[in-house]
């Protein structure tokens, strides 16, 4: 059974505010990762920039969403899978960046190979990405 935004917020012991529910619903329903700017446009004058920023930061800290930097240096956000945990994201998967529409897609079907860093180095975050043209842009 798929859990809704309210269930996710409850599971993370977060207050269920209208803004939090709306932002999480938008990220969950999107088939691409969204930037803060795209979310600001989506919610026009309903959510102020600071509240949105704080909501995204909180969600990232709690393992509800993950941040991806696309090929153009823009931060995008996508809802995490169920196995992400607070402060220890397990959202390491392939990201596809469309060079035409600038969409960023999470690709969970591709297995990321294990790797070992040289002694003394500790990976905190890593990103695997592919650039190309998405299916929709190829058709146009």
Explain what you see.
With 140 residues, the protein is an alpha+beta fold. The protein has one domain (5-139): Winged helix-like DNA-binding domain superfamily/Winged helix DNA-binding domain (Arc Repressor Mutant, subunit A, Orthogonal Bundle). It is 31% helix and 19% strand. The chain contains 5 helices and 6 strands, in the order ααβααβββββα. The protein has helices spanning 5-11, 18-29, 36-42, 49-61, 135-139, and strands at 34-35, 65-69, 75-79, 94-98, 104-107, 128-132. Strand 2 (65-69) and strand 3 (75-79) form a beta hairpin. The longest helix has 13 residues, at 49-61. It is globular, with a radius of gyration of 16 Å. The N and C termini lie far apart (36 Å).
Q: What would the keywords be for this entry?
A:
140 residues, alpha+beta, 3-stranded antiparallel beta sheet, Arc Repressor Mutant, subunit A, 5 helices, 19% strand
CATH architecture: Orthogonal Bundle
Order of helices and strands: HHEHHEEEEEH
Strand % is: 15-25%
Query: Ranges with pLDDT <50 over ≥5 residues?
Result: none
**Class inferred from helices and paired strands:** alpha+beta
Enumerate the strands of the largest sheet in spatial order, edge to edge or round the barrel.
1-3-2
Main beta sheet? 3 strands, antiparallel
Which CATH class?
A: Mainly Alpha
Overall helicity? 25-40%
CATH topology: Arc Repressor Mutant, subunit A
Question: What global shape is seen?
Answer: globular
């Amino acid at each position: 059974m798929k859990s809704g935004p309210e269930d996710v917020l409850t599971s993370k012991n977060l207050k269920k505010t209208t803004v939090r529910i709306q932002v999480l619903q938008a990220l969950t329903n999107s088939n691409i990762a969204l930037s803060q700017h795209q979310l600001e446009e989506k919610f026009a004058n309903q959510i102020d920039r600071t509240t949105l920023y704080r909501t995204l930061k909180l969600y990232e800290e709690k393992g509800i969403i993950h941040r991806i930097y696309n090929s153009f240096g823009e931060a995008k956000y996508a809802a995490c899978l169920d196995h992400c945990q607070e402060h220890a994201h397990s959202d390491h998967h392939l990201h596809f960046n469309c060079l035409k529409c600038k969409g960023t897609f999470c690709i969970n079907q591709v297995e990321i190979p294990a790797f070992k860093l040289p002694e003394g180095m500790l990976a905190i975050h890593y990103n695997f990405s592919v650039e190309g043209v998405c299916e929709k842009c190829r058709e146009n």
